[in-house]
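Appendix C reproduces, verbatim, an entry submitted by the partner laboratory led by Prof. M.T., so that reviewers can inspect both the input and the predicted structure.
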Amino acid sequence: MTSLADPLDLAHGPSWRNRLALAPLTNLQSHPDGTLGDDERRWLVARAEGGFGLVMTCAAYVDRAGQAWPGQLGIADDAHLPGLRRLADDLRAAGATSSVQLHHGGQRASSEVSGLPLVAPWDDEARGVRALTTAEVGQARDAFVAGAVRAERAGFDGVQVHGAHGYLVAQFLDARKNHRTDAYGGDLEGRSRLMWEVLRGIRESTGPQFQVAIRLSPERFGIALDDAVTLAGRVLASGLVDHLDLSLWDVRKPVHGSGDDDALITHFTGLPRHGTRLGVAGKILSAGDAAWCLEQGADSATVGTAAIIHHDFAARAVSDPTWASIRQPVSRAHLAAESVGPAFVDYLATNWDDFVVDR
């Protein structure tokens, strides 16, 4: 049986030192121009020092029009490179494999933050969203590829394309709304075309030791389960991707709306891997939760909330199979001691009623 402590070999690049990955978590800790902030660097380096096999940045915007929140890290301009280089060096020195999550918010971007109009696969006049032209879809693809090239230049071991949670790549996958009549809409082949072009472009534009990954939502956001299973199977077989991360929200959850105990995770862990690794994320709060994911057939477990609360979740989980995170809410003082900066703490306190207490 695979254990959390086992290294994870991928088709390209370095092995992860264990089976635990830090989730790409929105944290609002960088500068208004997208350059790396000291609090964001401390947050990430602490998780590397805390034993995670893979440490990934938050969603880093590849195009200013895709910026979704203030304090978001950027990888859209060479001006972002100095901070990214420092971060890549620090993560490597702490023993972690490193990755940048590449992101474009699409209709979920913020015009107030970016100063630019919202764009998406379709028009939404009520929300001020304009449909991308076919040529602009190509420009978005090129922005993702350019972001990956910058990440490699900065010294990161790889990138993850954010194809989940209703952001731009996932918007194209949305069967409810993407009725484009060009090559990027309609059936699953058309709706996934941007995703494939991004992945292919990154693989062709980066070196043989560079790791390429993608995060997908396996349901909701206009993505039917059957389509998600088909798409995941194709990704695993493509040879373009080293790691597929599925954002399940809760790794033990049933299929949404199924009314039975049919676990969502089981629809994916049985798929042939073809050398590609499969990770899962969602409410992994203990060593037992992470080990359970491996028992179900996943290759790795991606940790979010518990990694905020404990910078050394990975080291603790690897050394003690009975260890579990303390439960929410936690104090601001506790989070500060775990290298969670004030902007991140405020974000958590504002968006989750049960995360932060002032004590």
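The chain has a mean pLDDT of 97. Additional entries are available on request from the coordinating office.
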